[in-house]
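Title: Comparing notes on inverse folding

I've been comparing how different people in this forum approach sequence design from structure. To keep things fair, I'm posting one structure and asking everyone to reply with a full sequence. Here's the target:
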């Protein structure tokens, strides 16, 4: 038995992507502005761990025989039924794999930025990761919605 794509997203992909995206932020509150970015070697290493997890998770997502969601799972608002998603993925395996390749490629950009300790490049790569993820979601999970911008 394999974990489903939904289970991998919830347990591995989303937390890893969030770890990359949340590593750099500007937060405004009544107390002032906080600029969050990795500064110490340990903080950079933590972001790198998240990026590596995301990179390798794409290999798991595209494994043959993996279903979209566990039996009985209900679609979220705007999503196709998991059985419909399975049919779409099977019918468009090269496209599905290409989206995973895009996530891997953009995550490699993030890793290069992390290794150079380049916050600006990390932000750019994070945006590209988001676009790659959303492209897959719009294609396979909620194709009735507008394309990502």
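Reply #1:
Here's my take.
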């Amino acid at each position: 038995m394999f974990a489903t794509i939904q289970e991998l997203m919830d347990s591995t992909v989303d937390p890893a992507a969030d770890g990359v995206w949340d590593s750099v932020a500007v937060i405004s509150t009544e107390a002032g502005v906080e600029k969050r970015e990795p500064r110490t070697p340990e903080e950079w290493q933590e972001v790198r761990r998240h990026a590596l997890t995301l990179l390798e998770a794409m290999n798991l997502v595209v494994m043959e025989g993996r279903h979209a969601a566990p039996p009985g799972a209900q679609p979220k608002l705007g999503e196709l039924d998991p059985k419909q998603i399975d049919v779409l993925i099977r019918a468009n395996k090269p496209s599905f794999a290409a989206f995973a390749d895009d996530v891997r490629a953009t995550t490699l950009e993030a890793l290069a930025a992390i290794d150079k300790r380049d916050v600006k490049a990390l932000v750019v790569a994070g945006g590209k990761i988001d676009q790659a993820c959303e492209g897959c979601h719009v294609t396979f999970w909620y194709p009735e919605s507008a394309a990502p911008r």
